[in-house]
């Protein structure tokens, strides 16, 4: 069954070892922040630093593995229509909108949405790390390291699929940042098989 995450919101759910999670961009050019925690011990969490170190590459796609802070594989990417995702940047937050956009009354962002969705699992705000940002397009200048946030390359109906390698709690959002999504807020969908 396909579930829908409304624009500028988020959710959390469990994913059992062996199950697959397909993240769908139904309208195109929309980012979804993905977090994973071990259900056995929620202090074990998805780690950008470990994963990028082992991959030796910033752009991850089919065949790449997402590691925890304890260097255990949490998720494998088993299918990917887009091939451009970000694993450098933290979830957008109230502060993001104040600092980058100068918003006077900022939205709580993916960070606030994840805090709310993960609270019932006992996960605290300070335990939210860099998310795997599905479809987020962050081109990087290889010589200077300068980067920009550009509209996603995903088109309507594009997907990325992960297989759980341990029992997980997943946090997932429809990103709240205009810059990430080409200037429009859209939903995200997902399916568990
Ligand atoms: Zn966001």
What's the layout of helices and strands?
Elements: E1 2-5, E2 10-15, E3 20-25, E4 32-38, H1 48-55, E5 65-67, E6 73-80, H2 94-100, H3 109-118, E7 132-134, E8 158-164, E9 168-173, E10 188-192
Antiparallel strand pairs: 1-10, 2-9, 3-8, 3-10, 4-7, 4-9, 5-6, 6-8
Could you tell me the mean pLDDT? 96
The low-pLDDT segments are none
Structurally, the number of domains stands at 1
- Beta-strand proportion: 25-35%
Termini Cα gap: 8 Å
Name the structural class. alpha+beta
Determine Rg (CA atoms, Å).
15 Å
Sheet with the most strands: spatial strand order: 1-10-3-8-6-5
Count of helical regions: 3
Topology, number of strands: 10
Biggest sheet architecture: 6 strands, antiparallel
Bound molecules: zinc ion
Order of helices and strands: EEEEHEEHHEEEE
Principal-axes shape call:
globular
Percent helix among the residues?
A: 10-25%
